[in-house]
Amino acid sequence: MRIAALIDDIKIYMMKPKKNKSLLLSIIIILVSAWGTVYAQSGGGKLHAVVVGQDNSPLGAASISLLRSPGDIPLKGTLSKENGDIEFVEVPSGKYMMQVSAVGYTTYRSTEITLKAGAIMSLDTIRLQAETRVLGEAQVVGKKPLIESQIDKIVLNVENSVLATGNNALELLQKVPGVTLDNKKINLRGKSNVIIMIDGKPTYLSADEVSRLLENTASNSIASIEVLTNPPAKYDAAGNAGIINIKTKKNTQFGSNVSLNFNLGQGKYTKGDGGFLVNHRNNWVNLFASYNYQNSLGFNDLTIDRSVRDSVGTTYFNSDSYSKFRYRGHNFKFAADFNLGKQEVLGFVVNGNVSNGNSTRHGDNLIASEKGKLDSVVQGSNFSDFTYHYLAYNLNYKKTFDTLGTELTANADYSYSKNNDNSTVKNRFLDPNWAEFKLPKIFRNDMLSNTKILVFKTDFVHPFDKTTKLEAGLKYSRVKTDNILIYEDQNTAGEFVRNEKQSNQFLYNENIAAAYFTLNKSFGKFSVQAGLRVENTSSLGNSITLGQQTKRNYTDFFPTVFIQQQINDNHKLGLSYSRRIDRPDYGALNPFIYYLDQYTYQYGNPYLNPQYTNSYELNYTFKERYLLSLGYKRTNDAITQVIESNSETKAIAQTDRNLTYFDYYNMNINIPVKVLKWWTTSNNLTAFYSKYNFDERSGAQRQLEKLSFQVSSNHDIRIGETTNVELTANYFSPAVYGVFSFKSYYGVDLGAGKTFLDKKLNVKLAVNDILNTRGQRRLSSVQENGYYRIRNGYDSRVIRLSLSYRFGNVNIKSLDKRAGNNDEDNRLKK
């Protein structure tokens, strides 16, 4: 069924006459040109050599470059075989130098080689020397600093550090400069909606699913974590919160391994999950498979206190409700890479989620014309259940041309999601004595949404030399969504009858074509990177029920600039600028009304415009360890959620509007401290000033602004080789977001872990939110004709037992990857 839909989509794409064919022709031209440029070399002779280490053992995977003399002009590149053999064929006659490098060894350069036409030459054995530096009488082997400030990102080098043991990837993120966790939700410098990548590939998971994935990823499998607060032009222009890229360790170990994991949590209710990961690698294929099942219970304790003022007077509402919900989810993934040659890989990925759940909500809404005087009560019950199906396919190709890093990648993605949500709402109407004075109102909502996403993407990277690199690429995406809402009222006979006025069907189609290039150049200790991304968006929103269509077609340019100066060994400065876009979620454009109860409803806004952000940032790094950053962002037409009050019906509505602008100033300081040999801390402070400017479009005519800060301190205590204790404390000050003001909150987490069986078995016991202070959130909003205050409680204090066991060859690199449709999938509401 899904394969047939994919074939139909590709047929439709190919049948469109001009725009799509010209785009496809452009992709083909770039691929052919890139291929031809690299291989347009004349035939000639042959060079052969063998490379060994200091102990005369063969060295495989050493990087070999053949340089034309004079000028050291790169001609060809390759990697040595496992037995140390090096071979260059079809080498034109001339003079050359051979350069050989490998991790942990000093770089070797040969004497000048003269090759005649058609000649076959065998060079002497090349013996590499171990790379060391002598300091006094101590011999120090080169090691990467813990924190690196690169021109377009901050890198935390986890590999071979104390951070690489005893943690999972989610815990490790708390040690990354500028990153904080709020109930396992990842924030970067005070902003949420961060894009999480693994080995440069988006995860395409919801916030909860990302948290579970990272909890099941051991920190000793991670090489480094990259933080991109201003992503360069190669990434989608969507999103202004930033990107976190987790890079796993790379090696060529063969064999198989299996990882089993089980987690059990107990708060007010029980929650648990478990699954497995399987890897297999040989010299021609790398396979990966994973499965995880989650079954959890949770609750939501919600209090809403609000007022609505009209010409007659003020009406007060106080609503208390309690929801209990269950979630069951199956996540699975299968991936394979096939080595077509030494430097050519073809792969595919199948990724899916099948989940279902249900919830019950009961509450009382007290209505009064004066405070302290009850006029009536609306007693509500809501019973709902949902099913969600998501399936995605990816086909990817990568070709590496030389040791300098020239490579071509191509991806094709197709995903299909189906979400079905049913709810039955019953409202009983009671007088001040809590006696029913009229018949209850019962209605039913049945929502069905389908989304298809098709994406083609190609990237080309070409380093001209060690100081100059060019990157370029193309991308095309097409999205189709179909949202259906069936609203039914219960009549006096107890039958449900469709209400056509409240039912709805909304279709949305969107096409985005993009191209980019980036040029990176170094001048000694000074580096500059400039890029430009161009995106054309055409969309059609069609409300079948209302007979209303909204068409759009616009082209945007997104420049990026990065400058970095290495002042000396201890001081480094960086400056960056980028322009980015955030398009509305697909469902946010649906204009029809969805009722939660008689006095609460929500609706979409088909006239929502994209928001555009200009971002500036200054970074300072001291001793490659301590970081200070200053940033400023202005977002025009900022999309934000607003609350509207209806003076006639006394109901409130939730929707999205474009604000005039949003200013965001931020400062981030990260200070890691090694208190003792066995006690290390990571301390982070983020201060930010938010200023929102409203107008008539936003439903409020005022300005909301506030200076806020977040502070966190993470302590890691090592007890021997197999035991560690971790304590995390954080505080979030009062803040504003859109038309809402948020109260402060804080929390403390404590955990202890121990490894057994030669570190194959890991056992961890942890308590989240020991003081039970994070689970009570408060926010408020002052409206033109009233006020709105919320208290929201959830299951935050949870004790968890986690078990994981790995067997087989644990050094095999996991093939957990994806590519292509990150921006499009992130706009799905999962």
From TrEMBL:
<dbReference type="InterPro" id="IPR036942">
    <property type="entry name" value="Beta-barrel_TonB_sf"/>
</dbReference>
<dbReference type="Pfam" id="PF07715">
    <property type="entry name" value="Plug"/>
</dbReference>
<keyword id="KW-0472">Membrane</keyword>
<keyword id="KW-1134">Transmembrane beta strand</keyword>
<dbReference type="Pfam" id="PF14905">
    <property type="entry name" value="OMP_b-brl_3"/>
</dbReference>
<dbReference type="InterPro" id="IPR037066">
    <property type="entry name" value="Plug_dom_sf"/>
</dbReference>
<dbReference type="InterPro" id="IPR041700">
    <property type="entry name" value="OMP_b-brl_3"/>
</dbReference>
<feature type="domain" description="Outer membrane protein beta-barrel">
    <location>
        <begin position="399"/>
        <end position="805"/>
    </location>
</feature>
<comment type="similarity">
    <text>Belongs to the TonB-dependent receptor family.</text>
</comment>
<dbReference type="InterPro" id="IPR012910">
    <property type="entry name" value="Plug_dom"/>
</dbReference>
<keyword id="KW-0998">Cell outer membrane</keyword>
<dbReference type="InterPro" id="IPR013784">
    <property type="entry name" value="Carb-bd-like_fold"/>
</dbReference>
<feature type="domain" description="TonB-dependent receptor plug">
    <location>
        <begin position="166"/>
        <end position="242"/>
    </location>
</feature>
<keyword id="KW-0812">Transmembrane</keyword>
<dbReference type="InterPro" id="IPR039426">
    <property type="entry name" value="TonB-dep_rcpt-like"/>
</dbReference>
<keyword id="KW-0813">Transport</keyword>
<dbReference type="Pfam" id="PF13620">
    <property type="entry name" value="CarboxypepD_reg"/>
</dbReference>
<protein>
    <submittedName>
        <fullName>Outer membrane beta-barrel family protein</fullName>
    </submittedName>
</protein>
